[in-house]
Amino acid sequence: MPGPRQKLSVLEGNGRKHLSKSEKAQRAAREVDLPKPKTMRLPKWLPEEHRKEFRALAKELLAADMGAAQLDRDTLGRYVVAQAQYAQACKMAGEALAAENSVLAEKWTKIQDTCFKQARACANDLGMTITSRCRLVLPEGARPKEKNPFEQMMEERMARA
């Protein structure tokens, strides 16, 4: 069974697949390449109390350069809202447990679980969890090449000679 389809830059970076010029042009024409925005616009539906958190996370996502685009703003907004609802549900579940009200505690832990799953799904979509970042495939050219100490010593030696 074939693996997931990879971008042309990833294939070229890995050097495992040899494509003709026409195949490369054809494949490049079919790829979607969204421009990286300087900032991510706020969704209009996002409540005022969550906007600061949205801006901070959007700035971090764009700085990480993992392919976030304007299209991802609704997912990020849903993540921020779900995370806030999860925190509120944790507080309410804790209060119910402290009051020894097991019926109310059970209700709030179910809500807490739902909010956690929503936040986790959005985080996975955006590459904000460690497992989702591990699945991201970056082309070799995107990573800075580490300098081999032996090569560096030999270059210095050649420069002195």
Automatic annotation (TrEMBL):
InterPro entries to which the protein is assigned, alphabetical: Phage_term_ssu_P27
Tell me the domain of life. Answer: Bacteria
Query: What is an example of a Pfam family matching this protein?
Result: Terminase_4
Segments carrying the region annotation (Disordered) are: 1-41
Q: Residue ranges under compositional bias (Basic and acidic residues)?
A: 20-36
What is the protein named? Phage terminase small subunit P27 family
The protein's organism comes out as Flavonifractor hominis
Taxonomic path: Bacteria, Bacillati, Bacillota, Clostridia, Eubacteriales
